[in-house]
Amino acid sequence: MITRRTFLVSGAAVTGTLGAAGLLVPATSGSASAAGLDPAAIPKFTARMPLAPVLQPYLVSGTTSYYAMTMREAAKEIVPGRSTTVRTFNGSFPGPVVKARSDRRVVIRQTNLLTVPTSVHLHGAHVPEDSDGAPMDLIAPGGGVKTYTYPNTQPHANLWFHDHAHHIESENVFRGLTGTYLLTDDTEQNLGLPSGSYDVPISLRDARFDDSGQLHYEMEDIFNRNVILANGKAWPYFEVAARKYRFRVFNTANMRFFDLRLSDGSAFTQIGSDGGLLARPHRTASLALSPGERADIVIDFSKYPVGTELVLANDVNAAPGGPADLVGQVLQFRVNRTAADSSRVPSVLRTLPELPPATAGRTIDLRMDETGSPDDLAYINGKTYDMHRVDTEIAHGTTEIWTVVNSNRIAPHNFHIHLVQFRVLERNGQPVTSGPESGLKDTISLMPGETVKLQATFTGYRGTYLYHCHVFDHAAMGMMATMKIV
Predict the structure, then answer these.
(1) Domain spanning 196-337: which superfamily?
(2) CATH number of 360-485
(3) pLDDT by residue (tens digit) across 73-108?
């Protein structure tokens, strides 16, 4: 059985080392007492928030678009005046945007020039087993190559890709190995939503830096990762026109839960979640996102005079994990011009698929040790992840209801299922019929003691896939399991 305990080496930075059995060793880089760069000394809202580059295919056929990516280190200015080495796709931080269309294949050739193994998972995608990015389906460091095929047989969705190499995924993602994958279709395109330069993906996360400005990684380090990044910059600003914008917000943090608000308390409109658009728009003044979750929102800046500065804030009471003067701010919007606006948010966005009758039910218990020891482990149904064990066998084409429980008293978790999108039926016994969790989801948050009931249909592909906590540090500690679709 592979466990984090098995491979911890006290005080050593051993990330990426291969043991005799070919198993990955997790990082314990540095000590918890390292002082590091003072987040309070980093100026806020002085750097412009960049947009991730859109990746272009090197070949387009009648059915398929072909892309090439190279995983490599790159130096980026994340903190003003500092150069930080990050792990990237194509040298971009955050990684590039792939724009895909339903029912048109995408093939991506990944080359790994890093010094550590990788495995690329397209989070939220309905893909065959050999392109899912399993934890031990590794791309060797120093030039290993693997080609992933994404059929895109699902409807529109805001997907993202990240490393999933077991016991190293946490550090690889922390050091930057993420990217964006926007899947669209006619349903989405015909609505008249804000588009073009008014449709902006934003990847949010946190970070910790050492004295030299390099990323400092430790497991379970949530209270020291107090620098908030938006599209790879610490506390940036973004200039907007006085009109509607669509923001596709991705929580790519290892551990941090966000609860986003506008600093003036104004409401905005959520139009989508992990698996694409909601059935109807949801008017709200807050947006909660656990690690791995995505949301599609529309903010209308037309009511603000040119010259207005508005902060996208994070409510630390709702999403604790650091001082409010640091993690309580995310980025600043600057209204610097007027612009014509023909976009709209229709009252009906899509028709969600009917829920078929369920043929089976399961209970999934999430729990981790809460002693604070570096030997703490994390469990699903009392077991840590073992790549050789199948935990759940599911008949192909069947629909199941899973009751997922967070049994911890202190630690929050969330839950992600590979291969499928699911529907949330209940949270803490209360039906979910509208709002941000009423659409198609693949990741769901669970605070201590919470229970959610999910329904999913396991169709399309057979094989072995994961389900796990998407707090990466918890997954690396063992909170992962394997299902087999037969």
Answers:
(1) Cupredoxins -  blue copper proteins (2.60.40.420)
(2) 2.60.40.420
(3) 999 999 999 999 999 999 999 999 999 999 999 999
